[in-house]
């Protein structure tokens, strides 16, 4: 019954469509919460890298280097199993949100650091001369200019985060991959491998592709606005 063109396999998937819908919803909810956490950490830790404080810069490097150089799967196992044996068991959903958020937060921090670092020093000096505080300088001057630099890699990290929800399978999650695996190995539903995994892949595509497309459109619009602004400035200068 595992063949891609098996009618009975496709009927089995259709009859248990609620399983795939549930997995899709759980993956989406986990992803949204983890994205919020990763963006928050990315902004905070990324700004630390640009701070004049050596302590804050050290915190940034320790966090980024440690998280980026250890596997996400290991971090999940430590957070879930190691804490459980220590008497501090976290739920699967919370474990997924924290582990995915913290892991991708390290990459987001580097994205924000690079985006801010790409802005010319003259912009920082101009903001300082106008009396902006550090937060005001970043919020009103630096971050708006760095969006077009930060956007593409940020979206890539968001898409990777969504796909990485698959690793929650190792702790028995209820995400899309986990429920698909349970479906194809179930006593009453097992066997429809090709259709089940094809549907699973299509649902992931349904989440990720629109994000990538919207980001590309947004990036193009920002570049067009920058180009129009530069053209106007040049025209004014010529006059």
What does this 3D model show about the protein?
This is Polar amino acid ABC transporter permease. GO terms for molecular function: transmembrane transporter activity. The chain has 239 residues and is an all-alpha fold. It has helices at residues 7-15, 17-49, 54-68, 72-85, 92-117, 121-129, 134-164, 176-185, 193-238. The protein is built from nine helices and no strands. The relative contact order is 0.15. It is 81% helix and 0% strand. α2 packs antiparallel against α3 and α7 (134-164) packs antiparallel against α9. It has one domain: Orthogonal Bundle (MetI-like fold).
Q: Write down the overall mean pLDDT.
A: 86
Our count of domains comes out at 1
Quick one: CATH superfamily?
A: MetI-like
Could you spell the SSE succession in H and E letters? HHHHHHHHH
Summary of the model, kept short:
With 239 residues, the protein is mainly alpha-helical. The protein has nine helices and no strands. It has a single domain, classed as Orthogonal Bundle (MetI-like fold), CATH 1.10.3720.10.
Observed structural traits:
mainly alpha; 239 residues; flat; MetI-like fold; 9 helices
Please outline the helices and strands:
Layout: H1 7-15, H2 17-49, H3 54-68, H4 72-85, H5 92-117, H6 121-129, H7 134-164, H8 176-185, H9 193-238
Helix pairs in contact: 2-3, 2-5, 2-8, 3-5, 4-5, 5-7, 6-7, 7-9, 8-9
């Amino acid at each position: 019954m595992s063949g891609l063109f098996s009618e009975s396999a496709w009927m089995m998937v259709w009859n248990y469509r609620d399983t795939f819908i549930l997995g899709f919803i759980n993956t989406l909810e986990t992803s949204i919460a983890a994205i919020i956490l990763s963006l928050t950490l990315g902004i905070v830790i990324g700004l630390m890298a640009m701070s004049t404080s050596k302590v804050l810069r050290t915190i940034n490097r320790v966090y980024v280097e440690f998280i980026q150089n250890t596997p996400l799967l290991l971090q999940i196992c430590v957070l879930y199993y190691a804490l459980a044996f220590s008497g501090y068991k976290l739920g699967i959903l919370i474990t997924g949100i924290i582990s995915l958020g913290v892991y991708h937060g390290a990459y987001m921090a580097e994205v924000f650091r690079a985006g801010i670092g790409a802005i010319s020093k003259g912009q920082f000096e101009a903001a300082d001369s106008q009396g902006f505080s550090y937060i005001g300088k970043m919020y009103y001057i630096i971050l708006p200019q760095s969006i077009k630099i930060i956007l593409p890699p940020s979206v890539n990290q968001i898409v990777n985060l969504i796909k990485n929800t698959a690793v929650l399978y190792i702790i028995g999650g209820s995400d899309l991959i986990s429920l698909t695996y349970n479906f194809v190995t179930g006593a009453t539903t097992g066997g429809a491998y090709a259709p089940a995994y094809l549907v699973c892949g299509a649902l992931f595509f349904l989440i990720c592709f629109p994000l990538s497309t919207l980001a590309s459109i947004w990036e193009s619009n920002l570049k067009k606005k920058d180009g129009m602004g530069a053209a106007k400035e040049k025209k004014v200068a010529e006059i």
